[in-house]
């Protein structure tokens, strides 16, 4: 091979899974995607799909011939070795000299990590120190990083943090109104999450409007099973709905979102519930699933259309919270150029978009019914021409964002060392 390596492997390591994508940053070609799930179980499964074509969008990740392997994968080391074998069989292996970096999604970077960071022992130690504020995510992220480093110790490993995009929030938005000394000692503040998605989508929305990110104010609604909103002024986040943890904010698939904190005291005193039981209730048994037994918006809408009152109430509560955040972030920004929907629900659920914007005409917001009904993998505006504020749908691509940030950092580091 001649020239500069341009490929980036993106890893998203969960407690029992590894999602991965291989991208070539020279032309935007997505070379492969895959998932290893149920790591440590007898029913482990690896699904690998090689892809063809430049700029394959996330919604078309099944463009190649999918391969599936079933059987026990004992740990993350075995999982990544299996991934390396699949990539090697496509001629794009982990040992390829064309690989420039491995980019890792890391959920929590605290206040220290405000940008993508090349990982060394000091960075690993700091990510580990943040485990108490991200106990479900950072340990798994660390496992993936250490495993990848053992397989390619010579290769730059880059951490891209979910929280980094939100570190531009002013203290007035980031601070909770509790004793400052206690907050500082235990790192209690609003960090925000889904940052790679909010960064990517806000920038792509500016492009859709034909303007520079620095010129536009955008409200981003990342609506999936986890959901968050952000207010982005001139390319910088000034507020976001998730806080110390991903529990705060919008109604989600299984998370309650905003709730009176005294509810936890009440459940402890009156119901005798432990901290772990309350944690499980609010994170895993609340939100849409707690309200109506389903967390799939497609199923909820089907039930609404059939006249199911529990599903209708769950949908109304979901929309009510969404409207509140749109209004609040409109006030925070002062001027809004676009409200944009993204992620699984945001990109695909036309009734959610219609209901969230309905009644906000005085704010310059409206949805064109015909445009809203169109299914597309492309970024698009769904508001009528007369609307003062654009309403848009922009498919998110967190893996591409991680790859871009990782590659840019490696390129910059290489240039500074020349």
Compose a concise summary of this entry.
By secondary structure, the chain is α/β, with parallel strands linked by helices.
Radius of gyration equals 22 Å
Shape: globular
Number of helices: 15
| Global structural class | alpha/beta
**Strand arrangement, largest sheet?**
5-4-3-2-1-6-8-7
In N-to-C order, the SSE pattern is EEEEEHEEHHEHHHEEEHHHHHEHHHEEH
Largest sheet geometry: 8 strands, mixed
Helix content: 25-40%
**pLDDT averaged residue by residue:** 92
Give the end-to-end Cα distance, rounded to a whole number of Å. 20 Å
Query: Low-confidence stretches at least 5 residues in length (pLDDT < 50)?
Result: 53-62
Number of strands: 14
Written account of the structure:
The protein is an alpha/beta fold. About 40% of the residues lie in helices and about 20% in strands. The chain has helices at about 75-90, 120-130, 140-150, 170-175, 180-185, 195-210, 260-270, 275-285, 285-290, 295-305, 310-335, 345-350, 350-355, 370-375, 400-415, and strands spanning about 5-15, 20-25, 30-35, 45-50, 65-70, 100-105, 115-120, 155-160, 215-225, 225-235, 235-240, 340, 380, 390-395. The strands form two sheets. The chain has an eight-stranded mixed beta sheet with strand order 5-4-3-2-1-6-8-7, with helices on both faces. Strands 11-10-9-12-14-13 form a six-stranded mixed beta sheet, sandwiched between helices. Strand 1 (about 5-15) and strand 2 form a beta hairpin. Helix 10 crosses helix 11 and helix 11 (about 310-335) crosses helix 13. The radius of gyration is 22 Å and the shape is globular. Residues about 55-60 have low confidence and may be disordered.
């Amino acid at each position: 091979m001649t020239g500069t390596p341009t490929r980036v492997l993106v890893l998203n390591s969960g407690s029992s899974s590894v999602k991965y994508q291989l991208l070539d940053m020279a032309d935007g070609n997505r070379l492969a995607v895959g998932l290893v799930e149920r790591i440590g179980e007898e029913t482990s499964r690896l699904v690998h799909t090689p892809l063809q074509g430049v700029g394959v969008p996330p919604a078309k990740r099944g463009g190649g011939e999918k391969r599936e392997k079933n059987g026990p994968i004992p740990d993350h080391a075995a999982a990544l070795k299996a991934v390396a074998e699949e990539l090697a069989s496509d001629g794009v292996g982990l040992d390829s000299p064309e690989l420039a970096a491995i980019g890792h999604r890391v959920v929590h970077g605290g206040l220290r990590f405000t940008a993508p960071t090349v990982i060394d022992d000091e960075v690993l130690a700091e990510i580990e120190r943040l485990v108490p504020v991200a106990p479900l995510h950072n340990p798994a992220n660390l496992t993936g990083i250490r495993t990848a480093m053992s397989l390619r110790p010579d290769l730059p490993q880059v951490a891209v943090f979910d929280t980094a995009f939100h570190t531009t929030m002013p203290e007035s938005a980031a601070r909770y109104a509790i004793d400052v000394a206690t907050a500082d000692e235990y790192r209690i503040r609003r960090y925000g999450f889904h940052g790679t998605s909010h960064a990517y989508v806000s920038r792509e929305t500016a492009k859709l409007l034909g303007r520079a990110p620095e010129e536009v104010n955008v409200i981003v609604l990342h609506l999936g099973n986890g959901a968050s909103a952000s207010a982005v002024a001139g390319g910088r986040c000034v507020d976001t709905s998730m806080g110390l943890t991903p529990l705060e904010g919008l109604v989600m698939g299984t998370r309650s979102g905003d709730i009176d904190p005294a509810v936890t005291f009440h459940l402890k005193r009156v119901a005798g519930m432990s901290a772990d039981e309350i944690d499980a209730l609010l994170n895993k048994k609340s939100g849409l699933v707690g309200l109506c037994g389903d967390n799939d918006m497609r199923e909820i809408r089907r039930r609404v259309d059939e006249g199911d009152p529990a599903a209708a109430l769950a949908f109304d509560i979901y929309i009510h919270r969404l409207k509140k955040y749109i209004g609040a972030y409109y006030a925070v920004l002062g001027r809004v150029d676009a409200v944009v929907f993204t992620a699984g629900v945001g990109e695909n659920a036309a009734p959610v978009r219609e209901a969230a914007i309905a009644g906000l005409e005085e704010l310059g917001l409206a949805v064109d019914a015909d445009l809203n009904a169109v299914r597309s993998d492309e970024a698009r505006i769904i508001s009528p021409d007369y609307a003062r504020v654009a309403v848009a749908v922009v498919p998110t691509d967190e893996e591409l964002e991680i790859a871009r940030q990782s590659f840019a950092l490696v390129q910059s580091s290489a240039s500074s060392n020349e």
